[in-house]
TrEMBL record:
This is DUF1853 family protein. It holds the Pfam family DUF1853. InterPro entries: DUF1853.
């Protein structure tokens, strides 16, 4: 699949991903529930060089455009001081004439058992340890959402909308991965429906020697595993994954067992 990644598989995988929490149960950040659509996704561009986050923004915009009571005002509105870009508003739209500012997030988080913290969010980190849920929540609260009230933003929007009337929400989806063999960890107040698989370090990959592997490209990380791919044996997959591990890049893998059951995991470099 990786040589001809399907937008439709990506879109379906996105729609199948749950919101990371419900309502405003995390840091008082209100989740906006975007209705799913059965319409076939139509990309704005055929350029698959777009990073995953930009595709996700297109997916949300497409979903909203299928709603008769929604009118898109602006997408990816850059806010500048002179020539310097100080930030970007992901999506501005009207729903039943109520203006909304929506920040869109899609993440992959692993539960790091090496951490010790009173804050349960600190345990969730990115596959390469250079991202975290705590960092993203802080960025949303203290940078991305407050940008709406910046003087430059008010100036950009004053001709067609008053920032004081805009309701701010997030669409924050994620896939969560628990340590191999520890699938009973409580993830509350996060949504347990976001649990998508497990992870284990490359040093312990031999525990997976009875599985067949498929190594998806980054854009395919969104996709729900299917049998319609070219599967690799353990030895071949290990060699390919090792190339990424040596560059300190954790690898996602789809796995298939002898019962043809499919699952998703990360093989980490750490």
């Amino acid at each position: 699949m990786n040589k001809n990644i399907s937008y439709h598989y990506m879109f379906d995988g996105f729609q199948n991903t749950s919101l990371l929490w419900k309502r405003n149960s995390v840091e008082h950040l209100e989740q906006f529930v975007v209705p799913e659509t059965s319409e076939k996704f139509k990309p704005k561009t055929e350029d698959k060089k777009l990073r995953l986050g930009k595709w996700v923004e297109q997916f949300v915009s497409f979903q909203l455009q299928q709603q008769s009571n929604v009118n898109i005002i602006e997408e990816n509105l850059q806010i500048k001081i002179g020539k310097q870009t100080i930030g970007e508003l992901d999506l501005l739209f009207l729903k039943d004439k109520q203006p909304f500012h929506l920040e869109i997030v899609y993440k992959f988080y692993l539960y790091d058992t090496s951490k010790v913290s009173a804050n349960t969010f600190d345990y969730w980190i990115g596959p390469n340890r250079n991202d975290s849920l705590t960092y993203k929540l802080d960025k949303l609260k203290n940078k991305q959402l407050p940008l709406l009230y910046h003087n430059e933003t008010k100036a950009s929007l004053k001709s067609f909308i008053h920032t004081e009337s805009i309701k701010q929400c997030v669409c924050f989806k994620a896939q969560l991965f628990l340590p191999f063999g520890k699938q009973n960890i409580c993830v509350e107040p996060l949504n347990k429906n976001c649990i998508s698989g497990f992870y284990l370090p490359f040093a312990k990959i031999k525990a997976l020697e009875m599985f067949q592997f498929y190594i998806p490209d980054k854009l395919e990380w969104l996709v729900t595993p299917s049998d319609n791919v070219t599967w690799l044996n353990f030895k071949t997959a290990t060699m390919r994954i090792k190339e990424q591990i040596e560059q300190q890049r954790s690898s996602m893998a789809w796995l298939k067992n002898e019962k043809n059951e499919l699952m998703k995991c990360f093989i980490t470099w750490w």
